[in-house]
Amino acid sequence: MMPEDLNTTHLTAPAQPHVTKGDAPEQPWQALLDSAGEGIWGVDLEGRCTFVNRAALRMLGFDAQELIGQNMHAMIHHHHADGSVYPAEDCSVYNVFRRNRPVSNEVDHVFRKDGSYFWIELSAQPILHLDKVQGAVVTFRDVTQHRMAEQALRRSEKLAAVGQLASSIAHEINNPLEAVLNLVYLVRGADTLEDARHYANLAEIELVRVADITMQTLRFHRQQTAAAPVNLEDTITAILRLYASRFPARRIKVEQYLRASHEPYLLEGDIRQVLNNLIRNAYDAMPHGGTLTIRLHSATCLKTSIPGVRITIADTGTGFLPAMRGHLFEPFHTTKEVTGTGLGLWITKGIVDKHEGRIYMRSREGQGTVFTIWLPVQSAAAAVAA
Ligand SMILES: Nc1ncnc2c1ncn2[C@@H]1O[C@H](COP(=O)(O)OP(=O)(O)OP(=O)(O)O)[C@@H](O)[C@H]1O
Ligand SMILES: [Mg+2]
After folding, report:
1. Which atom of ligand 1 is nearest to the CA of 321?
2. Which end of the chain is more exposed for a tag (fewer CB within 10 A), N or C?
């Protein structure tokens, strides 16, 4: 939030309500308000509408006469989107004219005359006259479309993560299950009890692997809202276990240099997703084998001196193809037409940003790619959650 005195509108409060009406001469500033594309309304110290522009009336479905003089909160902001009552005192606009606290770019909803609601982004400033607050002016725009598009993206983001995880689990579970099937077959035909016991032991080992993968998956997917110290060595090792059979099958060698003295505060599920996305991309980029190198060490940010950890994930694969140039962290950019959704890196960047970290990429076509992530030991997200 900006300092209050820097963000204050010096408008003179109208002595009388002004209405957009054909039968009264319009004030010049009313014409100005009406020319704006954004919706604008003003309220007095009681929250009563003092002016409203044409764009606001169009979006809200009211006539000016129906709003002027009425309590705006009671007219258009009376309930939360979930149907519960929205007390005026909880409304951020109330804080503007009662406590001189401006609001900028807040997403909220308002009701139309017909009872339907839509999502808006609003800013509100106090109206001052001789340094005393007289009311507030609210500007808003309809962001419903934008919000719906964002929600659709979030849904596909989750679906993509689930799909990716499901295929890696199916793959990893399939191998030990095939082995168990073979061993059961051998138990049936075993000549001696000793042979049968031996095969049963082997089957048990394979089943423990299946259980282990399932456990990892459950941990992976458990929703977590609070950041907690994460041992990244353990996290990386657990993710690599999901690829235990696929890497050797493709002749991919894994080199790990994991030594961090810090355990950063992170949302572990999110960070697993980040690492899994990057490791999965590296795997996809090495269809004919290669080396995956994962490094983890403590690293202080050179610019800010904030302590943190650095993770690098390097592959000797295809490198980024020209089609991806300029679209690195944008959603839906993929070169894997059938198998990819193009959401992995976008999700990754979002999670790193949420942790106030940084992510960089270097790549050379035909030679490989290095992703570097830096995460602070403590982030504001972690502080809020802690
Ligand atoms: N390590 C890498 N080496 C080469 N190209 C890469 C690498 N990582 C990502 N890319 C390129 O970036 C594109 C986008 O990656 P991203 O992870 O966002 O989506 P995706 O892997 O295509 O699909 P998914 O949503 O399933 O992850 C990939 O299609 C690929 O072309
Ligand atoms: Mg990917």
Report:
1. 31
2. N
Render pLDDT for 154-206 as a digit per residue (tens, 0 to 9).
777 777 767 766 766 776 787 788 889 888 999 999 999 999 999 999 899 88
pLDDT single digits (tens) 272-285: 889 988 999 999 99
- Dump pLDDT digits (tens) for 75-109: 999 998 888 899 988 888 888 988 888 988 888 99
Whole-Å CA distances, 147 to 53, 104, 119, 340: 24, 17, 8, 25
Domain span holding position 167: 145-222
| Statement to judge: residues 76 and 91 lie in one domain | yes
Determine whether the shortest distance from the Cβ of 319 to ligand 1 is under 6 A.
yes
The sheet that has 252-259: what strands, in order across it?
Answer: 252-259, 290-298, 308-315, 368-376, 358-364
Kindly state whether residues 41 and 121 are assigned to the same domain: yes
Number of domains within the chain: 3
Ligand 1 neighbour 243 (Cβ under 6 A) = no
Does 377 share its domain with 240?
yes
Which ligand 1 atom is nearest residue 282's CA?
1
What is the distance in A from the centroid of ligand 1 to the CA of 241?
A: 21
How many angstroms separate the alpha carbon of residue 346 from the centre of ligand 2? 9
Q: Is the CB of 285 under 6 A from ligand 1?
A: yes
